[in-house]
Each structure stands twice: as C-alpha cells, then as structure tokens.
Design a protein that fits this description.
This protein is mainly α and 241 residues long. It has two domains: 100 residues, no CATH class; 121 residues, Orthogonal Bundle (Cytochrome Bc1 Complex, Chain D, domain 2), CATH 1.10.760.10. 54% of the residues lie in helices and 0% in strands. Helix 1 packs antiparallel against helix 2 and helix 7 crosses helix 8. It comes from Nitrospira defluvii.
Length: 241
C-alpha cells in the first residue's frame, strides 16, 4: 500500500522541480511566481485525489495508510514516525515563516541597476504614433486587457501583483516612468523580463515579452496610455541633460 502513496508524492515533487528550476531556464521564459507554482501543485493534488477515489478499492488503498498514520494504528515504527512528524511540522512552519519575514544584510549576488541601460538600438527612439485622444484611449484599452492584471490602475496593485517579486511598477510613483524616456519603456515592454541585461539581475522581472503579441505601434500606444493614465509625462532629452 505504501507504493500507492509513493507515486503521487514523486509526481508532485517532479512537477515542483520542473516549474521551479526547469521552466525559468527555457528560452524566452521567466521565473514563475510562487503563487502560480502553488496553484499548479494544488491542481495536481486535486487530480491525484480525484483519480484515487474513482472506485471504493482505490479510495481505501489511497487513504488507508494516511488514516492509519494519523490515528497511530499499527504501533511500532509507524507510531514513532507519527510523533516525529507532529513535532517537526510546527518547527518547519515556524522556520519558513521566520525565513520569509526576517530581513537580511547579505548583499545581492551582483550589483543591480534598477533601470539598466537599454541596448543601443533603443536609445533615443521617438514615439512615431501621433498623440491623439483616439490613440491614447486605444492604448489605455490595450493596457486594461494586457497590463492591468499586474500593474492595476497604473498603481502597481493589480489582482495578480501579490505573486511577483519584484512587484509590478507603480506608474503613478514619480520615481518610475516619470524618470524614463518613452524609448526605455518601448524596450522594456517589447523585450520583457527575459530581455534584461546582467545588471538587471538577480531579480529579473516576470513581465512577458510583449513583442510576441503586440505590434510596435500598439506598444507605443500603450506607452501613451500609461503616461496619461498615471498623470505623468515622459522624460525628454533636454530634461535628462
């Protein structure tokens, strides 16, 4: 009966390792947020439980060892393992809680630049799209469908924002897009987190590579919509000098 539980455990561990370590190293991919990994593991667990309860025999074979372990039936080594787990579980929860909340004075693995310099071909680009009300509203519509789940109402507080480290940018903050030129935003939106150079590590963002889904013109319109919605203006060459 132990084998009935071993296979689901191995499957769950393999899925976790795949999502945590394999997916971020795939081409054009980025690290998955912990909340998304947790969601996939919960879906895997639900699928295992559903499969294990398709018949009465499979249900007894799956839940039998779990119930005997929790109730202490069988005695001997099983009972000792039960007490060991009951003692270690709160210690592990406490250790995880402390590790996630305690501050660290350890420096990052590499020096990080919050706004790394874009490649040369993106330096000094001008927005070729006319800044008309129609184009701005069109850009806001694209923003609402593509960007707002993470960046919210231009404040970085979208419903998915809590799952990301670093968090999505707050465009209303004067230290974000108000300090940047439109050409910088065009590069970051087009290439996403995977396009960051080494000085943007080790905290690469999970922003998608939007050039795979949006045209250059649409990206420029999104940029206009972001500045207008956030109440900011792009930095110009004169101001930067």
């Amino acid at each position: 009966m132990g084998g009935v539980l071993v296979r689901p455990v191995i499957l769950t561990v393999c899925i976790y390792l795949f999502l945590k370590f394999i997916v971020p190293n795939l081409p054009h991919s980025a690290p998955l947020p912990s909340s998304l990994i947790f969601l996939y593991l919960m879906l895997t667990t639900a699928g295992i439980v559903i499969f294990a309860t398709l018949s009465g025999a499979s249900k007894d074979a799956f839940f039998g060892p779990i119930l005997r372990f929790l109730t202490g039936e069988g005695g001997g080594a099983l009972s000792s393992a039960r007490y060991l787990v009951l003692a270690l579980f709160p210690l592990l929860v406490g250790w995880q809680t402390y590790g996630s909340t305690a501050s660290s004075d350890a420096p990052p693995g590499e020096n990080r630049t919050i706004h790394p310099a874009p490649p040369g071909e993106y330096t000094g680009l001008s927005n070729p799209v006319p800044k008309t009300l129609d184009n701005i509203n069109y850009g806001k519509g694209l923003y609402a469908s593509r960007c707002s789940p993470c960046h919210g109402n231009f404040d970085g507080k979208g419903f998915a924002a809590a799952g990301f480290t670093p968090p999505p940018a707050n465009f209303k903050d004067p230290t974000t897009i108000a300090m940047l030129q439109e050409s910088y935003l065009f590069w970051r939106i087009k290439k996403g987190g995977v396009g960051l150079p080494v000085e943007g590590m080790p905290w690469k963002t999970a922003m998608p590579r939007w050039e795979l889904e949006m045209s250059d013109e649409d990206i420029w319109k999104v940029i206009m919509g972001e500045y207008d919605g956030a109440g900011q203006k792009p930095r110009t060459w004169d101001e930067s000098e």
